[in-house]
Amino acid sequence: MRGIISSLFVKKCEFCKRLNFRVCPNCLPKIANLKHSQDAIPYFLNYHDEKIRKLIWKFKYKNEVSIATDLAPLIGDFIYEQIENNLDLQSEHIYQNIYIIPAPITNDPTRYRMRNHMLVMANEVQKYLKKLEINATVCDCLAKSGTKRMAMILGKKKRTAHIEKSISLKSPPPKEGLIFIIDDVTTTGATLKKIKKLVTTKQAFVQIVALAH
Ligand SMILES: [Zn+2]
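Above: query sequence and zinc ion SMILES. Below: predicted holo structure tokens.
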């Protein structure tokens, strides 16, 4: 019995079964590639891959924080590169104002899990950046209403409008700096584009990034 219980909780790399990881540092570069969706949204993982889909599902619904820890370098390194690329422009200013905004989950406790897994991811990315001597602030400023099911039954045009309406600000977004909006899976990009619109100001450079597509 003890064996069965402990085997359920043993962390193994989804790809090579190495212990104590969910995606080990060896496998991560093999499964991840920076690409852009049709909507020009950068992402790293192929959501059509069964193992990737399973991993993201577990991260989303089974609260496996270690998946966030193991995947955080993807977004962390991406942010690091963006900072490097923007250094010439307004270096000090940008260095001091780096924000990570997690995409929101729907605010319906009766229907969905309570915890926003992308907030967990944002915190893991923040920790990762700290090791690279970059201080980023996590800004959980977005809210989402309604359910995905509702969005599914609508046609494409109505769905986009529905998504647009369902996302709002629950607190003021950062006024300036380098802002990264992060999400797990991007499909049409409608959600992320709406968020970008909401948080963009004259003094902010806003970059969207998703884990998978
Ligand atoms: Zn591995």
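The radius of gyration is 18 Å.
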